[in-house]
Amino acid sequence: MAAFTGRDLLSLADLDADEVKQLLQLAAELKAGKQLHCNKVLGLLFYKASTRTRVSFSVAMYQLGGQVIDLNPDVTQVSRGEPVEDTARVLDRYLDILAIRTFEQQQLETFAHYAKIPVINALSDLEHPCQILADLLTVQECFGNLAGLTLTYVGDGNNVAHSLMLGCALVGMNVRVATPAEFVPDAEVVAQAKAIAQNKTEVTVTQDPEAAAKGASVLYTDVWASMGQESQATSRIPVFQPYQINEQLLGLADAEAIVLHCLPAHRGEEITDGVMEGSQSRVWDQAENRLHAQKALLASLLGVE
């Protein structure tokens, strides 16, 4: 894993196909009981609310033998306008690795430019790469192999959709993203995913959720209004209603299909309670795998052996 040491993970596109496979293999080994140890310090700088990302990163670092400092922006000089460039250079002198959850991808890139330590994207408005590493681990556990499978995402063309397109393209999965016309994913990310796929796998954006779901191995959704968009939540419901993962949509997928949701879920909106609690749901395994995937990521970027 020496090739990972000291690097940043700001986008899944920062990895190549072999590196994703190596991370997933290490995550599986750690989940099975492999022990690694480090005496390092992880900083968490979260400008947005978090449950799974915050807790899974913390537990992962503690299980590796390291320590975690929660850098709440509200009680640091960041809240008083200290420039990102200055904060980054100071934290670089104290920490061994830094995970940031923020609104702007540019802020992550600025931190990475001014800090020599590894910087991890723990969610931005553009991407959510750590989530997708856990998703791919979950799919791999269910099907044994990723290449050739089809994952269908329905809902908002948001950060999760972006990272799913990149991640699926990297591992040789087909990916279909079905969204309302006014909520399509970023065109540059779509083009990037298609370039990675090199016409060997399918990267499709459509407004037809039923066509996208037909024969899929994985159905995936997320909330219809992401963090920072809460004021739009009610107005979005009628627009997104045809994109709900319900029993009817699941019936169009492959008979052995699984259902994923990155959580938190608004049951009755983007997913029905019956599907989320049904036999094909792997939502809780997916949530657990945040811990194992991120532990593998931390160990790799820190050069832990």
From TrEMBL:
Molecular functions per Gene Ontology: ornithine carbamoyltransferase activity
Q: Which HAMAP family match?
A: OTCase
Task: Specify the protein name.
Answer: Ornithine carbamoyltransferase
Origin organism is Gloeocapsopsis crepidinum LEGE 06123
Q: Where is the Aspartate/ornithine carbamoyltransferase carbamoyl-P binding domain?
A: 7-141
Indicate the enzyme's highest-level EC class: transferase
Catalysed reaction equations from the record: carbamoyl phosphate + L-ornithine = L-citrulline + phosphate + H(+)
Pfam families per the record?
A: OTCace, OTCace_N
Residues involved in L-ornithine binding: 159, 222, 226-227
All copies of the Aspartate/ornithine carbamoyltransferase Asp/Orn-binding domain together span 148-300
Q: Which residues bind carbamoyl phosphate?
A: 50-53, 77, 101, 128-131, 262-263, 290
Q: Does the keyword Zinc-finger apply?
A: no
Q: Write out the pathway annotation from the protein's UniProt entry.
A: Amino-acid biosynthesis; L-arginine biosynthesis; L-arginine from L-ornithine and carbamoyl phosphate: step 1/3
The UniProt entry, under PROSITE patterns, shows: CARBAMOYLTRANSFERASE
Q: Which gene encodes it?
A: argF
Q: Which family does it belong to?
A: Belongs to the aspartate/ornithine carbamoyltransferase superfamily. OTCase family.
Segments passing through the bilayer: none
Q: Which UniProt keywords apply?
A: Amino-acid biosynthesis, Arginine biosynthesis, Cytoplasm, Transferase
Q: What is its EC number?
A: 2.1.3.3
Q: Which InterPro entries match?
A: Asp/Orn_carbamoyltranf_P-bd, Asp/Orn_carbamoylTrfase, Asp/Orn_carbamoylTrfase_sf, Asp_carbamoyltransf_Asp/Orn-bd, Orn/put_carbamltrans, OTCase_ArgI
Subcellular location(s): the record lists: Cytoplasm
